[in-house]
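Notes to self, Outer membrane protein assembly factor BamC:
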Amino acid sequence: MKRSALSLHATRLAALTLAAGTVVSLSGCESLNDVLASDRVNYKDTTSAPPLAVPSDLTAAQVDQRYVAPPVGTALGGAPPRAKTQAGNLTEGVPSAQDPLGMHVERDGDRRWLVVDGRTPEQLWPQLKEFWTENGFSLKTDAPTTGIMATDWAENRANIPDDWFRRTVGKVIDFAYSSGTRDSFRTLVSRDSSGATDISITHAAMEEVLTGQDKTSSRWVERPRDPALEAEFLAKLMQKFGLSDAQSKQLLTDARPSTARAQLDSSAGGATLDLPESFDRAWLRVGLALDRTNFTVDNRDREKGIYYVRYADSMQELKRDGIFGKLFYSDKSTKKDAHEFLVNVRSKSDTLTQVAVVDANGQVDTSSDAQRIVSLLHAQLN
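result:
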């Protein structure tokens, strides 16, 4: 893998440092990434700060118990106890004859999602937040009322080449190395008609590429999403919910297909889509499809069947999420310039659902931008 401009500068800086004789002995030093993950993901590039100690000449203040935070493991409303499966697992899902592990995976092409039986989104939300934190991410969207959870951009440290230079100098200045890639993940959580919870994970990526004749400058470009990386995190999530590594991979292999094709209908003056399936299934698939376009779901209202979406510029998001971006960008200034579209999912019968982009009055939007969204959804749903 090619190193980014930042990596090259860091390497040159390290070489000069060594030449000057200022590098301390490596025998007693630990890098910020002591042990690289054995698998293909490692976003844990920060650690918690040590607890603050009260100086000996000061007295610790008495804390009013009314303001003591509850234990981290306590879920909102209280988490139900895990169920024991015949295989001996303690799982978040509710085992059944159809799903002996309390969960299963469904797929639509290369898109997969986890179905956790007998659990509501409210019951699983605290564990989902813990999951992303434990994997080295911070959340920029945490909206349990809409079922949308999104991470900030982060670097997969496992992508950095483990060459001789990094194995020596990297133990001192490992933080200066960069893979030249950034990833973010969006989690959509929905309740289905059977009382189970559907959880999907969508990957987005940017890559820093060197530019100019001398390759001393760089710019960020979008990379294709990685279905294998999405599957990796689904497997990790299943393990968080109580399954073994082998069990989670087997459920991914045995993913159940869902392949109803969308039909384009232009008879209403503006293009709409007909999905030959129930509202519950169509609602989930449309959300997954939107997540894999450049349109970001800011909000959604299941009762009204509306996804509120806007065009997302990944480049601007990456700048905004950076160190300096947080000083100069704001969500309000970014969103006010982006036009919001309403994607309506409406049941026409028990086995047929219509998908359309509508205006504020609920009428089919015939603008070119609206029709572009419909075309993108048609491509994603087939």
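- The domain at 78-151+182-259 is CATH 3.30.310 (TATA-Binding Protein).
- The first strand starts at residue 83 and ends at 84.
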